[in-house]
Amino acid sequence: MFAQAATTKSAFARQAPVSSQRRDCLHTLFAKQPVEHLSAAQILFFQGDAAASIFEIVQGTLRIMRILPDGRRVITGFLHAGDILGISFKSQYIYSAEAINDVVIRRLSRKAFEKEVASSDELRPAVFKRMSDEMAAAQDQMVLLSTKNAEERLCSFLLVELQRALRMGAREAVVPLPMTRLDIADYLGLTIETVSRTMTKLANKGVLAASGRHAVKILRRTLLAQLAGDGDEWDEDRRSAYGSAEERRAH
Amino acid sequence: MFAQAATTKSAFARQAPVSSQRRDCLHTLFAKQPVEHLSAAQILFFQGDAAASIFEIVQGTLRIMRILPDGRRVITGFLHAGDILGISFKSQYIYSAEAINDVVIRRLSRKAFEKEVASSDELRPAVFKRMSDEMAAAQDQMVLLSTKNAEERLCSFLLVELQRALRMGAREAVVPLPMTRLDIADYLGLTIETVSRTMTKLANKGVLAASGRHAVKILRRTLLAQLAGDGDEWDEDRRSAYGSAEERRAH
DNA sequence: CGCCGTATTGAAGTCTTTCAACGGACGTGG
DNA sequence: CCACGTCCGTTGAAAGACTTCAATACGGCG
């Protein structure tokens, strides 16, 4: 168990949905904290709870979500090993966090965290950067939800998760999907059926192949990236052309 | 002009799309900076530009947006007088900012800003809070885009803008809409036609009445709030009921 | 006063959702 | 070790919401 946690810890992430960057000095803050365990479906905290702690995820995956008064659920992100959770909170948690599988975390009190950050000139930029990355990820998600169709959404999601898996040291292009289809649907703003249908469509196209229920193997990564619709992420040429392209319509 | 700018400056905002809080000590940073003027449709900065400055909006409205490679545009927020722009940036701007009408801003170099923040124990929490508010707003927008239909989206938007107008000292329930329908559409993830149709539907219901092209008068504020679908924003009852409500489907 | 860009309205089309049934995997218990 | 039940995922068909295409109307500005 210890060895396992150690290897997981050495993993890092970049560009993931909510807050995951490469290992930085922030992790040293948690190094001495004891680990805590959560089992699948266990809730770490509720939306509206007093935001007392900041968490480092050592192992496993969490979903962070909001529930609307009428019961509709929105998943605003998935958090994996190496991610830090709770930096951008106010006095109350703005969403709920729930374990998808078995999760190991370390906890730091908000007070202690703020004290450390105030006193360290090295920590401050790291915190700042992390929040900025979180914000950028949130913007990406808004773009996805505003303009992308089902196929583009799923491809975007799979691409990000694939990149994460590869950074974690995966040797094959296999994307682990510990969450259920409903989680994916609630994250992408689709229904479970549409996710399922789109997945089989991608399989038929030869983009991917199911690898058990909770993983997919990516067969054509370039095609996946094209279908994701992010293209080359805004190149210089497009920029100068922008002015004349203003009349283009939405969607 | 000066007097006008002064009154505008005393305005504050809370809970607006991207970054607008009540007046706080951050504004003192800009007090000595000279004002700059932008005319309608003028671009303050481009997505991808080196993020050299932080801005305080003294007057007017900006749209912040991202352009996808294929030309699709997403507006991730509108910024009004009193808002501060650019705190959550990395080394490059993650979106473009463009004036909707005539805009007055003050500018502070990123370097100077960071220096001030590092040295002031009062400024740091203010910056932190602002970024957290921005994050919360981004999450709200994700919820809107994920789960809400056209009517709910438009009502949510109008409600936020109405609250802002009232805080700014508006005596009547009139929402100024300096942006075009296309802007609203790109912000809400809809088409211009759907925005238009939904607007007239709301007028027929007696919720609002057009007041020229760039303003609407809200006639039934409570109904507007109900139609926005945010309800009472997550009450305690619902929370305990959540566990048993897990089987609910998306949308 | 007339023009041009913006907004509204109508009708058809498309994508996703909804409703419904089936299939398959996993875990428990016999 | 297999049987069975349950949960999750897949597939099909119909319905619905929004988009798209197209024409018309409004409103500000020269």
Into which percent range does the helicity of residues of chain A fall?
A: 40-55%
Tell me, what is the CATH class of the largest domain in chain A? Mainly Beta
Taking the sheet with the most strands of chain A, its summary is: 4 strands, antiparallel
Number of helices of chain A: 9
As a whole number of angstroms, the C-alpha radius of gyration of chain A is 19 Å
Strand order, sheet with most strands of chain A:
1-8-3-6
CATH superfamily label of the largest domain in chain A: Jelly Rolls
Could you tell me how far the N terminus lies from the C terminus of chain A, measured between alpha carbons in angstroms? 49 Å
Domain module tally of chain A: 2
Oligomer category: homodimer
**Ranges of chain A with pLDDT <50 over ≥5 residues?**
1-21, 234-251
Give the overall shape of chain A: globular
CATH architecture of the largest domain in chain A: Sandwich
Largest interface: chains, residues each: A-B, 59 and 59 residues
Strand segment count of chain A: 11
Q: Taking all residues together, what is the mean pLDDT of chain A? A: 85
- CATH fold-level name of the largest domain in chain A: Jelly Rolls
Roughly what fraction of the amino acids of chain A lie in strands? Answer: 15-25%
Reading the helices and strands of chain A in chain order gives HHEEEEEEEEHHHEHHEEHH
Given helix and strand content, the structural type of chain A is alpha+beta
